[in-house]
Amino acid sequence: MNLKTAILLLLSMSGFMAALAQEQEVKFVQDNALRAGQEEAKVILRSNSDALTVTDKTTGRVAVKETASDGNYHYILNLFYDGVEEDGFVRSNIEIQSPDGQRTVQVVAYVGKVMVATYNEETMIVEKDNVRGVYPEEKKAKITFLSPLTDLTIVCNGTTLFKNGTAQTVSGTNVQPAVVPGESLTEYVLVFSLDEARKPAVFLKNNLAFTFTSKIGRTQTMHDVLGMKEAHQYVVKSKVKIVEVEVTYNELLAKAKEYSAAYATQYESAWFLAGNDAYEAVRTHMDCPVNLKDSYQKEQNKFIFLRKYSRYVEQADERWRKAEAAEGFESENVWKYLNLGRQMCQEIVTKYPEMTWFKQKLAEFDALYKKHPQSNVELPIVTGKVSKSDGWFLPVDGTAIYAINFNCGGLDEIKGYKPVGAVQNGAYKVVLREPCKYLYFAGEKRSRPIEHKTQTLDVVLTR
Fold first, then answer.
1. pLDDT, tens only, 392-401
2. Alpha carbons 54 and 94: distance in angstroms, whole number
3. Contact at 8 Å (CB) between 339 and 369?
4. Do 88 and 131 fall within a single domain?
5. Which of 165, 170, 171, 434 is 20 to 30 A from residue 397's alpha carbon, by CA?
6. Do 231 and 317 belong together in one domain?
7. Close Cβ partners of 237 (under 8 Å, ≥ 6 residues apart)
8. What region, left, alpha or beta, does residue 287 occupy, with left being phi > 0 and alpha being psi -120 to 50 degrees?
9. What is the pTM of this model?
């Protein structure tokens, strides 16, 4: 997110809401994707609450409330420029009234720009997902709560089943809790034994009252009734207050320069992506000098290149090792990915010879590639004569030839590929240094299928 840092205000008890609300900062930042009129600036307060009153204290105007596409609300104020301020700014004090307090925020906006802030009331939501599924075990039933929150405490009819995200031991009941971690959602699973003949001291089935508590948000309550072999599923989530804080141009530039100072010894694609994002934030900041944007773009392009090719190196390194584990070192896939890795490292060190890690990695790939049996096999060669059809208006000699593994439909599809040869004196000779399925002669509409072996293929260039 450009120009903004999300600060999560963690509230552990709902009773603190009113007291903390006065301390929470709401700061408006400029949204460069939006525009206001020529003689005005615009203020938008985004909120999950429909109970706010937003007022321009300078003029007394009250914001118009609109429902956004995501179900939240936008409170919109137009701040009109009266020409008094010669610097092209509109200044105002915005008063925000909510059920848990009132605050006043100063806004300074450029004419024609839109200032945006977010204020959300704390809520926890329980939504039905699959209310009446089937649980296949006899005399049992299941309830699953899916949640991005990993610290839920869940209590049912006074019995604590989960505490701070951990399943509890609940002897003397008919329920067995379990936690199943997931990549984005945690499953809080409850399996109930509904055998009436074996009722324990605490038998949970009807009139189930669940309460959910998290470090984020208020306690929420819901009710459920279980039937035999039923599977109920719910989603538990929280809307968290996000305060958007402006980051200055100088702060962003200092961070970007840290990436530029350290890049030569780095190797992870995620690190280069972060460097790209840092320069994107600098270049698009409202205070970035116009005469410096091109130099920042040039530096950003370096990180874009390094991100791309370091990712290729990571993938090649991962895939040859997997191929070795599955097929043995002598497999063709090992050879292919070792070759890909050395080619990608070579691209990097050719353009940026100061990249020390990739020099070492290139040497490692080279040694393994030369050790592979495929590297000592005589390489296949494709030769042939080349002429042109009546519809071919380009010179025949000099036509570039590409060895590829897909059926190409034009030059646009092979950007980034290097030719393996060219037509000379109406003929060509191509050495297939790695497996390929097609030869593409630049300018034709389709590539030509080949086998990975020495062969003769005469070509009539067509459009």
1. 999 999 999 9
2. 7
3. yes
4. no
5. 434
6. no
7. 124, 125, 127, 147, 148, 149
8. alpha
9. 0.41
